Amino acid sequence: MRFLLLLAPALLVAQSNFHRAAQDLEIRYWLLDPAGHQFRISHDFTVTRVGQKSVHSFVRKGSTVAPDSKMFDLDTGEPLPTHVVTGKSVNALGYYPTPTDPDSVVVQGDLPQAVGEGQSVRIRVEETYTDPVGYAVKNGELVWTRTLGRPLNYVTLPEGWTLASVNTPAIITLDAQGRTMLRFANIRNDQLAVTIKAKKR
Question: What CATH number has the domain bearing residue 178?
Answer without folding.
Answer: 2.60.40
